[in-house]
Design brief:
The structure is a single chain. It is built from 20 helices and 4 strands. The protein is mainly alpha-helical. The strands form 2 sheets. The protein has a two-stranded antiparallel ribbon with strand order 1-2. Strands 3-4 form a two-stranded antiparallel sheet. Helix 4 runs antiparallel to helix 5, helix 17 packs antiparallel against helix 19 and helix 18 runs antiparallel to helix 19. It is globular and about 70 Å long.
C-alpha cells in the first residue's frame, strides 16, 4: 500500500504566490460586489482596483530574491520582482483613466475591472515562473482577458480587432505548445533549470541539436507573434486602432514586458548552451522589425497607427538586447521599458484629449494628422506636452527614452556588436522624421475643421496621468543613476 505524501505548508512557500492571489481575489471580490449590489458607480470599482493594485505592489516589494515556492514552479528572482513592479506601475497609471470620460461605456462595467485584474495575474504568472506549463497558463489567462477588454469598446472595428488578436494569439499558443512539447520529449522536464542541465550533457549529439533547433524555431515563432516581430507584426496596427487609445498604449507596454521576460529566460538558456543559431535569428528578426516598422510608420496617415508601428520598432530595438545575453543588455530591457512606459502611455492618452463624435477630418481614421493641425493655437499646453512625448520617443536628449536607447546601444558595443549599435542609431534617425512630422502639424500648420465638432477631454484624472508622464519624461535625467543601479542589482542577483 502506498503511503500518502505529506507536504508541509512551509515547504510550499505560498508567499511567492501572494501577488497573483491578491489580483485574482481582487477580481472575484469586484464580481461579488456587483452580484450583491448592481448599478454602483464606476468610481467605486476604480478606487477598489487601485487599492488592490497597491496591495499587490506591496506584496511584490515584500518578496525575497531568489526563492522558489509551490512545488518549485514559482521562481522569485530579481527579474520576476522588477518585471512585476513594472507591470503594476503601468496598471496603476492606466486604471484611473476609467474616470476620465462618460463616452466610453466599457468602464461602467464591473466586469472590465475584474478582467483587468485577472489579466494582471496572468502576466505575473508569466514572469514569476520558469515552468513552461505555468508560463502557458499565464499567457492564456492574460490573453483571453485582454481579447475581451478590447471587444468591450463596442465599436465595429473593436470586434474586428479582438477577433484578429484572438486568431493570432491562438496561433502563437499552438506554436508555444508544440515547441514546449519538443523540449519535454528531449529532456523529460518542463522546468527550465532542469532542461538546461539535461541539454548541457546531450547538446553535442547531432539528433538532439536538430530537435533543439526545431523546438527553438517554434518557440521563436510564438514569441514573434506575441511581441509583434517581423513578419508576425501585421495584426498590431489594426488591433491598436480598434482598441481605445489608452488601452492601446497599455497594450504596447505590459504584454510586451511579460513576453520579453519569458523570451529572456528561454532564449537565454539556448544562447548559454552555445546554440548560436538562436542568437543570430533573434538579431535578424530585431533588425528587420525595427527597420521595416519605421518604414511603415513613415507612410501612415493616422497618428494612432503611426504610434502602433512605432511600438513595433521599439520592441525590435529591445529584443536585440536579449540576443546579447549579457547582464548589461538584460538591464537595458527593463530600463528601456521603465522609461518608455511613461512616455508612450502619455502619448496614447494625449489622443484622448481631443475626440470628435464623427470622423470630420478623415473617412476612416479617428486620429489623422489633420486633427492636430494648429493645436498650438487651440490648446497650447496640449501641443507642448505632445511635442515632449514625440521628442522623447525619437530619442532626443535629455528626455527619458534617450537614456534607454543609449544604454542598450552601449551594451551592444560592450558585447562587440558595434554594427548593431550603428543600425540602432540609424533607425532612431529614421524614426525622428515621423515623430517630428506630428510636431510640424501642431506648431506650423493652421487649424482645420470646426471646433464645435471636437470634444475636449480635460478631466482631472486624465490631466493628472499626463502630468505624471511629463514629469517622468522630462525629469528622468535626475533619477537615472539610482534606477540603473537598482535594475542592474536585481538582474545580477538573478544570474542573468
Amino acid at each position: 500500500m502506498l503511503e500518502p505524501i505529506s507536504v508541509s505548508l512551509a515547504s510550499l512557500n505560498l508567499v511567492t504566490l501572494a501577488p497573483m492571489l491578491v489580483a485574482v481575489a481582487g477580481g472575484l471580490i469586484l464580481l461579488i460586489i456587483d452580484l450583491i449590489k448592481g448599478d454602483l458607480h464606476k468610481s467605486l470599482y476604480v478606487m477598489l482596483t487601485i487599492l488592490i493594485l497597491f496591495v499587490d505592489f506591496g506584496s511584490v516589494m515584500g518578496l525575497n530574491v531568489n526563492e522558489r515556492g509551490f512545488f518549485d514552479v514559482m521562481l522569485i528572482d530579481g527579474i520576476a520582482i522588477i518585471s512585476q513592479l513594472l507591470i503594476l506601475a503601468a496598471s496603476m497609471l492606466f486604471i484611473p483613466l476609467a474616470l476620465t470620460s462618460k463616452r466610453f461605456h466599457e468602464y461602467s462595467y464591473p466586469e472590465f475591472f475584474a478582467l483587468f485584474l485577472f489579466m494582471i495575474a496572468g502576466f505575473q504568472f508569466m514572469v514569476a515562473s520558469d515552468n513552461l506549463i505555468l508560463i502557458f497558463v499565464g499567457i492564456e489567462t492574460a490573453s483571453l482577458s485582454l481579447y475581451t477588454l478590447i471587444a468591450l469598446h463596442n465599436r465595429y472595428n473593436s470586434y474586428e480587432a479582438a477577433v484578429k488578436y484572438f486568431t493570432m494569439g491562438a496561433l502563437a499558443a499552438g506554436f508555444y505548445a508544440m515547441g514546449s512539447a519538443v523540449i519535454y520529449a528531449l529532456t523529460g522536464s518542463v522546468e527550465l533549470y532542469q532542461i538546461a542541465e539535461v541539454l548541457q550533457s546531450r547538446i553535442s549529439e547531432s539528433s538532439v541539436m536538430l530537435a533543439v533547433l526545431g523546438g527553438s524555431v517554434l518557440l521563436l515563432g510564438a514569441f514573434a507573434f506575441k511581441l509583434s516581430l517581423f513578419p508576425f507584426h501585421t495584426w498590431t496596427p489594426d488591433v491598436y486602432e480598434g482598441a481605445s487609445a489608452p488601452l492601446a498604449g497599455y497594450m504596447s507596454i505590459v504584454p510586451k514586458v511579460a513576453a520579453l521576460v519569458v523570451a529572456m529566460r528561454i532564449f537565454g538558456l539556448y544562447i548559454d548552451l552555445g546554440v548560436e543559431w538562436v542568437r543570430i535569428a533573434i538579431l535578424v528578426l530585431s533588425v528587420l522589425t525595427m527597420t521595416l516598422a519605421n518604414m511603415m510608420a513613415l507612410v501612415q496617415d493616422d497618428v494612432k497607427r503611426m504610434l502602433a508601428y512605432s511600438s513595433i520598432s521599439h520592441v525590435g530595438f529591445v529584443m536585440a538586447a536579449i540576443a546579447l545575453d549579457t547582464t548589461k543588455g538584460n538591464t537595458g530591457v527593463f530600463l528601456y521599458y521603465a522609461l518608455y512606459m511613461f512616455t508612450n502611455l502619455g502619448a496614447f492618452a494625449m489622443l484622448w484629449i481631443s475626440r470628435h463624435k464623427n470622423r470630420v477630418f478623415h473617412k476612416r481614421f479617428d486620429h489623422p494628422y489633420e486633427k492636430f493641425s494648429g493645436l498650438i493655437k487651440i490648446m497650447p499646453m496640449g501641443a507642448v506636452v505632445m511635442a515632449l512625448f514625440m521628442l522623447s520617443l525619437a530619442g532626443v536628449p535629455p528626455f527619458s527614452v534617450f537614456w534607454g536607447k543609449i544604454y542598450i546601444m552601449s551594451a551592444a558595443v560592450d558585447a562587440g556588436y558595434v554594427w548593431l549599435a550603428v543600425v540602432m542609431g540609424l533607425n532612431s534617425a529614421i524614426a525622428a522624421y515621423y515623430y517630428l512630422k506630428l510636431v510640424v502639424y501642431m506648431f506650423l500648420k493652421e487649424p482645420e475643421g470646426n471646433d464645435d465638432t471636437i470634444y475636449y477631454n480635460t478631466s482631472k484624472p486624465l490631466m493628472s496621468m499626463i502630468g505624471i508622464a511629463v514629469v517622468a519624461t522630462v525629469g528622468s535625467v535626475f533619477f537615472m543613476q539610482p534606477l540603473i543601479s537598482y535594475i542592474f542589482y536585481m538582474v545580477s542577483a538573478s544570474g542573468y
